[in-house]
Known about the structure:
Layout: H1 9-24, H2 32-41, H3 46-74, H4 76-83, H5 92-103, H6 107-110, H7 117-127, H8 132-156, H9 158-171, H10 174-196, H11 207-215, E1 221-224, H12 228-233, E2 242-243, H13 246-250, E3 262-265, H14 272-283, E4 289-291, H15 295-301
Helix pairs in contact: 1-3, 2-8, 2-9, 3-4, 3-7, 3-8, 4-7, 5-7, 9-10
Amino acid sequence: MSDLGTIEIGRAFWLLAGNTLVHEVGVPVPILPTALVLGARATRHTTDYLELVAAIVIAMLVGNSVWFLAGRRYGTRVLKFLCRFSMTADTCVSRSELAFARWGWSSLVLGRFLPGVGLIAAPLAGALGMSWARFLVLTAAGAALYGGAALGAGVLLREQVEMALRALEALGEQALVVVVVAFVAYLGWRWYRRRVGHAPEVARISVSELRALIAAGEKPLIVDVRGPAMLEIDPLRIPDAVGVSLALLESRREDLPRDRKIVLYCGCPNEASAAQAARLLLDRGYAWARPLAGGIDAWRGTTTPGPSSG
Length: 310
C-alpha cells in the first residue's frame, strides 16, 4: 500500500478522472486526497504527472459542460438545485455572483479555489449566454491550474504521503475504520459549514403581507438586492422596487431612508441575500427591515398573467 510506484498510470488516470467527474456533478467526494496520493506517485515521471493533470482537465470539462448546458436551458432553477449540494447552500448564488462581479469571466478559473463558487460557475456562465468556445477555454485553464496545484502538492509532500500510507498499512483492517471516521468527520465539517453559512435568522414578510402593507398605504420601500448577473438572467422586478445590490449595502455605498419600512428580496435559496441585507440594516439602526419570504419566485407565483409586473 505504501509503494506508490505499484499504481499503474493507466489505472491512476481513470481513478482520478472518475473521482473528479463524480465531484463535478455534485457528489461530496473530495478530489484532493486522491490527487495528493497520485501526485506523490508521479514524482519520478513527468509524463505521468501531465497525464494526471489531463485526467482532471478532461473530467472537469465533461462535468461542467453538462451544468453549462443546463444553466443555458433552465437558468436560475438549476442554480438553486446545485446550491443544495454546496457547503454554503444558502449563500452560494450570491457568492458566485459576487465572484463574477469582481473578476468577470476569470471567475471560471479562480472559482476552483473558492467554496461554493466552482459548483455553480458553469451553469451561471451558461445562463448568462457565454459562448461554448470561451467557456471551454476558461474551464480548461481553471482545471489545469487546480490539477497542477493539487498534484504538485502531492509531489512536494511525497514523504509525508508515504508515511501516512504506511501508517494505514500497519493498521490493517483498522485502516478501514480510520478512513470511515475521516469521511464522517469530513461530512460533519461540511454540515457545520452549511450551518455557519445559513441565512441570518431575521423575521420574514410574506407576499400577502407585503401586498397588505401596500394596500394600507404604508408605502414600504421595496429593494431588489440581486446583482447585475442575476438580473440579466431573471429581469422580473416587483413594481416600484429599487435596485440596490447586497454588495453596495455591505460596502455602505448606498444609504436607504430610515423613515420607511424596508422590504428586501432576492432570488437565492432561503432568501439568503435579502436576509443578510436586512440584518445589516437592522444592525445599523434601521427600525424596520424584512426579507421577502420566497423572494422574487414567491412574488412571481402570486402574479396573475397579463401585463409585466416590473
